[in-house]
Amino acid sequence: GPLGMVVEISLLFEYGIDKIYFLNDVKPETTARHFIYFLRPRVELTRKIAAHINSYRINGQDKNYYVYFVPRTKMICERVFEEEAVYDYITKIDDYHLDFIPLESDVISMELPTSFKECNLDGDRTTLFYVARAMMKIQFLYGIIPVVQGIGSHAQLVTEMMFRMRREMSADEPSIIPEIDNLIIIDRNCDLITPLCSQLTYEGMIDEVFVIKNGTVELPAEMVVDPTGDKQPEPGSKMTTSLNSDDSIFKETRDLNFSVLGGALNKKAVMIDEYYKKRYDAKTFAEIRDFAKKFKDFQQAHGFLRIHTNITDAVLDITRHVSFRKRLEAEQGLLAMVSPEDSWDYLNECISRQRPFSLVIRLLCLYSLTCNGIPSNVYNEVRKAIIQTYGFHHMFTLENLVSVGLLKRNISRGNSYNQLLNQFKLVVEDLDEANPNDIAYVYSGYAPLSIRILELALECKIPRSEKEGNLEQTEIFAGWGDSKTDDIMSYLPGDDRPFHAKQSLKRGMNNEDTDTNNVTMVLFLGGCTFTEISAIRFLQKKNPDREFIIATTKIVNGTTLIDTLCNKI
Predict the structure, then answer these.
(1) Sheet of strand 212-213, all strands in order from the earlier edge strand to the far edge
(2) For 109, what's the count of Cα atoms within 13 Å in the CB-facing half-sphere?
(3) Is the pTM of this model over 0.70?
């Protein structure tokens, strides 16, 4: 889980932790007297702890309970403890501010899987408070960020909260020259299309097929264990393996389009094989020493290569299937607005063939967003078909999708997506996926709207505030200071418009000539996808003088995003 990303499990054992359990309905069978619970502030999880405590009490077992809510306690959870008559038996109830968790050297996440649902469906803006507080902690450590750009109402709310928190902590604000030049906040609501599309980078495909959680993926054990080893896994068993930059093969291939992955892995295999052959050519002591010096790294890379070859084969089994190709054709047709009626026919075929619910809903929402809605009579027909095929409880799911803007029941005049397609150049033809020159390679021709917005934000050179010393002075302006860019941004659907803000710095801290002023932090509210992360890394390759830090409330894909909106009965 997320806790494992910030502390080594072995370190917990060194400090006296006896055993670690996942919170479930069954209480841990242990003689330990001290229990420490870490949990999200959710009622159902709180009731499980209360059930544990009552069970131990009935059996006459006296224990000490320490409950830490991540990232903050909610009054309703304490009320549950009172209703279950266990509040007085809990030794301590407190907050654990986990905030941003480092997933990679350039990616940090708050790992809040329901942030999009809470903000857009439940009307609960608590997540935005958590984000603002986490951003203030970053500014406390690395200096006040001079320039903030944003798009979306939630982005502006976070900015306003940050400013208020800064005023409240002004007496304790450290004197640090800013290491982050500017912050760009992107509200997921400004681009609901991108997460619905099938991710086509290698890392994105792994996430689509196996689902990546907290930088790890659970795979069939035979894909991970060396088949030549003495100990072989039991049939059907699974193993969790890390996916990060410590894996040299994954580091170099994660952002590639999946269509060129085979060639890249083959080159790695040839390179490793050629290195192994050198052992026959090593004659002198110096040559043997040089071979041995690199042997451990190549042996490790060989193991990584075996795992990624197995993953690639598993993904290829899916991508070669006719159903995947037809789904991809339907998505690409909608994104390019080529024969959307064919995509609609394929959608109905998926329902009649009882394809996975999440894939059907992703395509339905993509159709709705690109075709500017669904006529009421057609919507009623497809709604009836979905409820009859997948269950009556999904009638509430469909209403949730309408509430958050993923589904539109009626077609309004004109097609706003057509305008977005032209203004933001979302579709790029004749793209070389092996040697791409545009971010559109991550979706084989479709450029994520969110990253096109980011590109426009980077083009607007907003100067810092000239007002020093007055920490109460914060300025928020409409637009990004460039009339051409603001005109393009006006084509975005809804009322959300770009804004920028300037934060005044302490005297002597406004040094724009330092080498540390080429860092941009991109913050996604409501989640981002692995393909968007790959696209930002591509931008960094095009702008080697600028470093990007990607922050998000959660890394999502279309299925995990839809799943949070499903009513579970």
Answers:
(1) 212-213, 216-220, 238-242
(2) 24
(3) yes
Handedness of CA 113, 115, 120, 123 (dihedral sign): positive
Torsion of CA 190, 439, 197, 203, to 10 degrees: -120
∠ CA 502-499-537 to the nearest 5 degrees?
Answer: 90
Write down the residue that tokens 């494992």 correspond to. Answer: 4
Using CA atoms, how far residue 546 sits from 108, 146, 225, 521, in Å, is 18, 16, 40, 11
Pair of tokens at residue 201:
């980078």
Closest CA to 179 of 423, 443, 518, 463: 518
Structure tokens at 154: 């939630």
For 82-118, how does the pLDDT look when each residue is reduced to its tens digit (9 = 90+)? 999 999 999 999 999 889 999 999 999 999 999 999 9
- What is the rounded distance in angstroms from the CA atom of residue 396 to the CA atom of residue 444? 34
**Residues 83, 85: Cα–Cα separation, whole Å:** 5
Beta bridge partners of 237: none
Answer yes or no: are the C-beta atoms of 291 and 310 closer than 8 Å. Answer: no
Helix (H) or strand (E) holding 304: helix 285-319
CB 162 within 8 A of CB 134: no
